[in-house]
Amino acid sequence: MDWSEVVRKAVILAEKTGYVTFDQLNELMPSDEAEPEDIEAVLTALSDRDIRIEED
Predict the structure, then answer these.
(1) What digits encode the pLDDT tens for the residues 28-48?
(2) I want to staple 52 with a disulfide (CB 3.0 to 4.6 A). Which of 19, 21, 26, 32 is the partner?
(3) Minimal CA–CA distance to 43: which of 35, 31, 51?
(4) ∠ CA(45), CA(27), CA(35), 5° rounding?
(5) By C-alpha distance, which of 13, 26, 22, 25 is closest to 54?
């Protein structure tokens, strides 16, 4: 699956706070389609854009 849409939406969420939460990412990523390597790719893409992932 192309996760660029998930990354784009996460970037929009992070524009206000500088970070996204794990809960927000869970809402954006359908769990029945996400493989571990997909999750890693999304986290790497966010990190490359200097977006932190926070617990809450």
Answers:
(1) 988 788 889 988 999 999 999
(2) 19
(3) 51
(4) 55
(5) 22
* Cβ atoms of 14 and 54 closer than 8 Å: no
Which residues, in sequence order, are CB contacts of 10 under 8 Å at separation 6+?
Answer: 20, 24, 25, 28, 42, 46, 51
Grouping H, G, I as helix, E, B as strand and the rest as coil, residue 45 is helix
Please, which residues have CB within 8 angstroms of residue 12's CB and are 6 or more apart in sequence?
Answer: none
pTM score > 0.70 for this model? yes
Token output for 2:
């192309």
Is residue 50 left, alpha or beta, with left meaning phi > 0 and alpha meaning psi from -120 to 50? left
Residue 13 host element (H or E): helix 4-17
